[in-house]
Amino acid sequence: MKAVHTELHRSHDPQFFLVRGVVKRTTEQPERADRLLKGLKDGKHRLVEPTTFGQGPRARIHSPEYLSFLSEAWDAWTALGDSGPEMIGNIHPVRHAATYPTHIVGKLGWHTADTAAPIGPGTWAAACAATDVAVTAAQMVMDGEDAVYALCRPPGHHAYRDMAGGFCFLNNSAIAAAHLRQKHERVVILDVDVHHGNGTQGIFYARPDVYTVSIHADPIAYYPYVWGYAHERGEGPGLGTNLNIPLPIGTGDDGYMQAMELARKAIESFAPGALVIALGLDASEHDPLKGLSVTTPGFRRIGQAIARMGLPTVFVQEGGYLSDILGANLTSVLAGFEEAR
Ligand code: ZN
User: Which keywords label this protein (predicted)?
Assistant: First the structure.
């Protein structure tokens, strides 16, 4: 399988991460991509540089105000003169009868869902590069490749139309799906990250043409806490095209595969033309953000199950944090896909 990758992700190197009131170093580090790259090399996947698609694909998903905010945020922040090394919001407007602010601190609060998406000097460049990686993979699949993997960093599935959060700024999976929509009437995003793909759900919640399916650790006790429940099924014309499958904390391979079977049936009945896999590897038993307990052979089974759906497939990297087997889990899921194809 061809794999799209760029070194441009390195300009985004966030530090701040607030966990239960304790400031730690974020787990979303550039080294993640090095380990994933090793997994690709071990699997003998051919690396491809992304094409630059510009703002067009991003603007299909994100609002003009949000894209302007992200592109200008760092300069406005440093111009304050007394600001910290990363942008962390200190207001959290809930938007009830609110006015879109003009001050950078106001905008920062408006456009961030939580404190886990610090913006630094190279965040915008890296986030844009990640969307090019995802769109390049989608374009390759539209041009005839059976499946392509996109090594996106920063990840994207927690980003809404106009709101960053959970290490995510631009929703790479959503942008890939919107690109695929130029060719296919119906597209599915299957999110296998340990965290609910809340941003993706939000973006497509009222749309009947993109079916969003997420298998994740139960938000009753896990991030993002306020989205990801089974009763969230879409709204308006999108009612019935959002499926959440929350799993008890610690669920292992067999429980996970039962959820994959539920997802497969739902996806089959939707009859999509293409599939985007929001490929978090943080459901691993060894992930530092412990939620589920999928083993390395379990990831192989997940890859096999995805292959059997029989759809042109774009894999978009989401979460998966530093552990000794991060790369091996990527090798495993892609090997499972290829052997079952
Ligand atoms: Zn995750």
Answer: Hydrolase, Metal-binding, Zinc
Q: How far is the CA of 288 from the centre of ligand 1 (A)?
A: 11
Supply the range of the domain harboring residue 283: 2-340
Nearest residue to 62 (alpha-carbon basis) of 228, 207, 200, 196: 200
Beta strand pairing status for 46-48 and 210-217? unpaired
Residue from 288, 277, 215, 252 nearest 32 by CA = 288
pLDDT at 170 over 90: yes
**CB within 8 Å of 311: residues ≥ 6 apart:** 188, 267, 272, 273, 274, 275
Q: Please give the backbone phi and psi of residue 277, each rounded to the nearest 5 degrees, phi first.
A: -100, 115
Query: Of the residues 5, 9, 12, 158, which is catalytic?
Result: 158
pLDDT of residue 307: 98
Query: What number of residues does the chain have?
Result: 341
Distance from residue 278's CA to the centre of ligand 1 (Å)? 10
Distance 84 CA to ligand 1 centre (A): 27
Q: Residue range 242-254: average pLDDT?
A: 98
Residues with CB under 5 A from ligand 1 (ion): 193, 195, 280, 282, 319
C-alpha distances (whole Å) from 120 to each of 75, 102, 145, 254, 319 are: 10, 20, 36, 41, 19
Element (H, E) at 216: strand 210-217
CATH number at residue 182: 3.40.800.20
For residue 93, what pLDDT band results from cuts at 50, 70 and 90? confident
Active site (annotated) includes residue 158: yes
| Statement: residue 96 has pLDDT above 90 | no
For ligand 1, the distance from its centroid to the CA atom of residue 262, given in whole angstroms, is: 21
